[in-house]
Amino acid sequence: MRVVVDLNRCQAYAQCCYAAPERFVLQGDEILAYDPAPPAAERAAIDRAVQACPVRAIRVEHDETAERAA
Amino acid sequence: MTDTDGTLFAQVRDPENRADPYPLYTRLRAQPVARQDDGTWVASGYAAIRALLHDPRVSSEDLPPAEHPATGNPIKDFFVNPIKDWITDRHRPFIFRDPPDHGLLRRQVMGQFTVARVRGMKRRTEALVDECLRARAGATRFDLVDDLAYPLPVTVICEMLGVPREDEARFHAWATQLATALEPESRNDEDLRARNTETFDAIAAYMRDLIREKRRAPADDMLSGLATTKDAQAGRMSDPDLVATAILLLIAGHETTVNLITNGMLTLLRHPDELARLRADPERAPRVIEELLRYEPPVHFRTRLTRAPIPVGDVTIPEGVPLVLLFAAGNRDPARFPDPDRFDPDREDNQHFGFGGALHYCVGAPLARIEAEAALTALVARLREPRLVEDPPPYRAGASLRGPERLLLDIRGIA
């Protein structure tokens, strides 16, 4: 699973940090740090983050082959 | 063609139209920013609302001073004056403040509304939902409002704040009473206004005592944190601000979530295929909830005040006028959302106004999502063959905080 956040679009609403706190962290007031390759097991939490983003800045690409292998 | 009826927003506030205000919103959107006959301006188009939400000339400090005479303006007289009695002369909570005060107060609240604390409520919320459902085991009639949607948020917000469990019932009554101050009926009802002032004084006195207690023996809760933490810039929050903040969090955490849960179940019952899909796949809940926040939001509008003339599209909103941001109309704008009147959890790019936006974006959004998910997934899984007894259900008076007064369901028991 590959996560890409459009940081130009991100407005630091921090909703992803509540949805998937292991993978999204707001540093200071507005800089988002995130894990671009979270484990497949966290798919539900990542999906919550995607859905909760008020500006829809988070995109997820699922690599089905890699996930089957894992 | 432009709809020139300048009473559309008055019709929105008319209880007759509470069950289905959406046709009025469609008419309002014909003119995305429109002046009403009473001097109020209403933004109902998505792009206009979004621009105004981010515009620093749009102020949230729309409460007039207490000695302000009746304006003849329904927004102020119906909505604003009734609540000013118990807020303006005391301390405004940060929902009614602009930068820089707003930012300082909000940051201190966010400092306590931590990821760990909110996430910590997830299991607790699920257990509370389970408690509510067990209490009604064997029932064949269920009132979603009284049996779950109302008691759940009050317990959650009281636990977050650190209000002792034995005082929850009083809080419930206070919040219910203070919410009536937002209703048009409270304008001319001296008794109601007197009761609201009394209630504010009672809750403020209680809060002052509780804050003193939290300072003496801090616990792991938001009030203890707010009462004892010193902000680098703002210092320690003053007692009046602390009281105003606590009351805001209590009411906001309470009167809105009940609508999200109740409107949510109502919408699912009106779309049985979606109810079945959620039952079969609880992981659809986040999509369902975001679409509910667009399609049937708990808060339909908020009022602001213009601090300068603001050009929007081909009109200019004058300075110093009440401005309504009609979120629920923007959420159904066909220029932004394809097929907007369709409830479609698979909708992509769902940038709704369900939690407002910009500086005042709902502080409690993550908590509301947790509560709605716990409630809706449990309801669809455990209520056996739920059927609406009345459709539409009776609504509470509020046009902004809009939701059913009760939602009676016939069921064949609770699993």
TrEMBL record, chain A:
Q: What protein name does the entry list?
A: Ferredoxin
What molecular function does GO assign, one term?
Answer: metal ion binding
Would the keyword Metal-binding turn up in this protein's UniProt record? yes
Cross-referenced Pfam families: Fer4_15
| Keywords in alphabetical order | Electron transport, Iron, Iron-sulfur, Metal-binding, Transport
- What SUPFAM superfamilies does this protein map onto? 4Fe-4S ferredoxins
TrEMBL record, chain B:
Q: Name one Pfam family in it.
A: p450
Listed cofactors = heme
Q: Which UniProt keywords apply?
A: Heme, Iron, Metal-binding, Monooxygenase, Oxidoreductase
Q: Which InterPro entries match?
A: Cyt_P450, Cyt_P450_B, Cyt_P450_sf
Fetch the Gene3D superfamilies from UniProt: Cytochrome P450
Q: Name one GO molecular function term.
A: iron ion binding
The free-text function statement in the UniProt record for this protein reads:
Cytochromes P450 are a group of heme-thiolate monooxygenases. They oxidize a variety of structurally unrelated compounds, including steroids, fatty acids, and xenobiotics.
- What family classification does the UniProt entry report for this protein? Belongs to the cytochrome P450 family.
The molecule here is called Cytochrome P450
Source organism per entry reads Methylobacterium aquaticum
Q: Tell me the organism's taxonomic lineage.
A: Bacteria, Pseudomonadati, Pseudomonadota, Alphaproteobacteria, Hyphomicrobiales
